[in-house]
Amino acid sequence: MGVHPERPMASARASTLLGRIASIDALRGLVMVLMLLDHLRETWFLHVPVADPVDARTTLPAVALARLVVSLCAPIFVALTGVAAYLFGTQHTRAETRAYLVKRGLVLMALEVFYLSELYWGVASPTLWLQVIWCIGVCMIVLAALIGLPRPVLFAVGLLIVCGHNLLDPIHLQPDQPFFAVWAMLHQRDVIALPLGLVAKTTYPVLPWIGVIVLGYAIGPWFLPEVATRTRERRFLALGCGMLVAFMVLRLANGYGDKPWFVVKGNALWTAMSVLALAKYPPSLLFLLLTLGIGALLLVTLERIRNASVVAALAVFGGAPLFFYLLHLTILRLLYHSAAAIWGPTQGSVFGLANYGWVLVWYVGLIVLLYWPTAWFSRFKASRRDIGWLKYL
After folding, report:
1. CB-based burial of residue 284 (10 Å sphere; 0-12 exposed, 13-18 middle, 19+ buried)?
2. Of 93, 95, 83, residue with least CA distance to 10
3. In sequence order, which residues have a C-beta less than 8 Å from that of residue 209 and are 6 or more positions away?
4. Of 156, 151, 116, nearest to 11 (Cα)?
5. Where are the domains of the chain?
6. Strand 199-201's sheet: what is its strand order?
7. Which of 203, 231, 327, 351 is deepest in the core (most CB within 10 A)?
8. Cβ(384)–Cβ(390) under 8 Å?
9. Is pLDDT of 1 > 50?
10. pLDDT by residue (tens digit) across 256-270?
């Protein structure tokens, strides 16, 4: 019997893949928990600006370190979104997979425009902030169009985009030039004028992220049942180490892949911060090599970790990532506006905490508080597969 023409990505054994893979959920959950730290900084410590990339000479070392850690979030999450799309396709036809990716992508884009943008910046704001949720939505729709390509071609497309997109950095279009809006969406972080006095800010230009999600999809077969756990671990160990070595070689060469780093005389810490200050908007090749390389090693660690309760706890957040994302941002906005109404501006024109240590205290407390509703929703979603719309959350 040959492979079903509508299911070329799925072998007979792959189609028996049931349930969720703990290490994927745990890694996804880890980056969601790390992301909370950055959003807390944006809530209680917004009066201390952080540029892209951070300026080693002006940024607090604690904030620079936190930014470096949370930089893992978007690349790992987008790559795992590609993996999840492949695994979804092992139990669905290609047409069903495409339909799911398009619908989920549209849901994410709508949430960004009609809820998250208003939630964070106010309903009266004329600016639509096209941030990470919008970006993931666009990537899923593009991936839907590409999943019919052979796997080697997908690898080639993903690598070409990730490794080569920095060659496009010199291209900078002005608002009055043709294709400005398209280019601002793809690779140039900018502001697009819209009708009715609205503007859209392309915080996350999507082109490099398309490369990441395509590569995630292309490595999806590494998680099939016929691939032994040790084999998968060896592959990710080699991949992670290889990416980190490539990062070190290119960064020390101080040429292609990101803006040059500099030596701060007499201050090794600031020099190290300069080396690790990498562009995220859009993500540079070096940014993706470092973060995805670490992500590959984290996946191996989570597969080998012996404390099952730690993996299970992280998997709770990873099992309902969109719910957690919407919930924690909503709570943070309510907390901020409540504090601002009670105490007023404490740091210039905004409410903020004077010490970054208090941000960390809030971080620990909110992780605990947010665990319970996320765990409830994760169980509810798993138990009610008869509710079709839940799969889009």
Report:
1. buried
2. 93
3. 74, 78, 135, 136, 139, 282, 283
4. 151
5. 14-392
6. 127-129, 199-201, 191-193
7. 351
8. yes
9. no
10. 999 999 888 888 988
